[in-house]
Amino acid sequence: MSNVVVSDPAQLAQACADIMWSTDRASQNLGIVIDTVGPGTAQMSMTIVDSMVNGHDIAHGGFIFMLADSAFAFACNTHNNYAVAQFCSVSFLRPSKQGDRLTAVAEERNRGTRSGIYDVRVTNQEGKTVAEFRGHSRVIPGTFFPVPEKSG
Amino acid sequence: MSNVVVSDPAQLAQACADIMWSTDRASQNLGIVIDTVGPGTAQMSMTIVDSMVNGHDIAHGGFIFMLADSAFAFACNTHNNYAVAQFCSVSFLRPSKQGDRLTAVAEERNRGTRSGIYDVRVTNQEGKTVAEFRGHSRVIPGTFFPVPEKSG
Amino acid sequence: MSNVVVSDPAQLAQACADIMWSTDRASQNLGIVIDTVGPGTAQMSMTIVDSMVNGHDIAHGGFIFMLADSAFAFACNTHNNYAVAQFCSVSFLRPSKQGDRLTAVAEERNRGTRSGIYDVRVTNQEGKTVAEFRGHSRVIPGTFFPVPEKSG
Amino acid sequence: MSNVVVSDPAQLAQACADIMWSTDRASQNLGIVIDTVGPGTAQMSMTIVDSMVNGHDIAHGGFIFMLADSAFAFACNTHNNYAVAQFCSVSFLRPSKQGDRLTAVAEERNRGTRSGIYDVRVTNQEGKTVAEFRGHSRVIPGTFFPVPEKSG
Q1: Within an 8 Å CB–CB cutoff, is residue D86 touching chain A?
Q2: Tally of structural domains, chain B
């Protein structure tokens, strides 16, 4: 960890994600997997299992939100600064059934000093869009790695 | 079931909720409890447990969404017609810790023939607001109980 | 102005609104009228005129947003602190025609130290709901009236 | 008009926009200009004038919404089917001053049979993002041009 080159955005993104993942029991317990992560972006996958569905074998929308929210959380925490979700919205476009493999791709739409906007598309194994999510993040105090002092 | 008086809104709301609950493995697995339900309204509670938190013992926002979304789902399904979530938004106002007991109260803001808007406030055991959620529902074909034919 | 009793919420709300209104050319030019204002609340009205409609004599949704947004702006600025809109959402439920008289009622849903949530319902002259709006405000530096020093 | 080749998406988009524009007094009165239009996309511009600002020469957020909403409306009406706004959200990221020239670019995020999602970024003359808007459209009965019968 101590060798992370904070000035390399791709390496920094991966290192931040590694730290977050190691303590994210919630995502782990849901069977979520990180496919890829990069500066301002993250892709995560999850299979809809028995405990996520209602009597019609349709996934509870909350689990789709959860997958999208996790991708958003990882994407907005790739710049070394701690960031949290402030406001999220989700449009459910197509139902998911038990056994479906869902993939969420989070991309940075906008990033300011204190806040950011991330768009997450959730698709199923057929590539069809299941949900569109937009998350607003806010930076809070703290960094994953020491910020190098700026030389004069 | 066959004795449900569909014309009594309170009895109908409870009966619809009973049916939904019996098959809602997702909410059951999260330890969610229905406190009360009525026409266009529902109150549900949940405790933040170990599997819902990240390394800082702060609840993953997705579980707060899940509780609010469940209360919304039950509230919008109290009028006999099947209804599903179409669009949801959530503002996270205060973090929740492991052990917190959260309560979500869903109230009907607007109901048309085909769609509805429900506001859900999530508070913790101190009565402080943790999140504000707004859900848009859409009616789909199907009813919980047979609709009595209208007499001429 | 100098006699405003800042400790009287109702008088303070009215005084803040008077100041805002005197410089709000945008709302004035749209023919918006303030019906009432109070702590965390505001009611405003507007008639849909020729310049607000498209070829089908249906009001451009932007003007309905504008009315709701104005009511929100006045409501969130009734506590002496300057506040601005950060995030807004609107659901269009029913079209408005030329000649319709719309009324927007803004109510405070949540207020923290730095931010607030306000719900605005827009109805027409028949009392039917035209739109539901939710606005998130953020406090910025500055007050309408000097804040009295707290005595020890 | 009668010569519009409905099967050419680019030509159809322009033709739909021409019809919409001819009757859109609201956008015309605000000084909005259509820069370009294409299948599922539209770019429109507007200058912040005196009547759009408050006493601090800051543009009323409603006019920024209006510009974004217009770009959204044109973009979602480029496929021949009439479409209307159902739900919109906007994040205000940076204030605009009198004299600023704002540009809104609407792009199709998702399109189903009955509904669509469009993202609109509003930037100022320096290319800085002023607002991010997301609009949900819904198809209503009617088309701009006769739909050719499908041959067997």
Answers
A1: no
A2: 1
* Pairs across A and D, CB distance < 8 A: 25
**Smallest Cβ distance to C110: which of B89, B93, B117?**
B93
- B150 domain-assigned: no
Q: B136 to chain C: which residues are within 8 Å by CB?
A: 91
- Residue at D19 is within a domain: yes
Which domain CATH number covers A37?
A: 3.10.129.10
Q: Could you tell me if B87 lies within 8 Å of chain A, comparing CB atoms?
A: yes
Using CA atoms, how far apart are residues D35 and D104, in angstroms rounded to an integer? 10
Partner-chain contact B136 D87, CB within 8 Å: yes
Has residue C3 been placed in a domain?
no
Question: What is the ipTM, given to two decimal places?
Answer: 0.91
**Edge-to-edge order in the sheet of strand C129-143:** C33-38, C41-47, C101-111, C115-123, C129-143, C81-92, D81-92, D129-143, D115-123, D101-111, D41-47, D33-38
Q: What pLDDT does A152 receive?
A: 45
What mean pLDDT is predicted for residues D47-52? 94
User: D136: distance to nearest CA of chain B, Å?
Assistant: 10
D87 contacts on B by Cβ (under 8 Å): 87, 136
The predicted-structure confidence for C81-103, as pLDDT tens digits, reads as follows: 999 999 999 999 999 999 999 99
Predicted TM-score (pTM) of the model is: 0.93
Q: Which residues of chain A have pLDDT under 70?
A: 1-5, 55-56, 149-152
- Nearest residue on chain B to D88, judged by CA atoms? B87
Domain hosting C36: range is 9-142
Do the domain assignments include residue C63?
A: yes
D48 three-class SS: coil
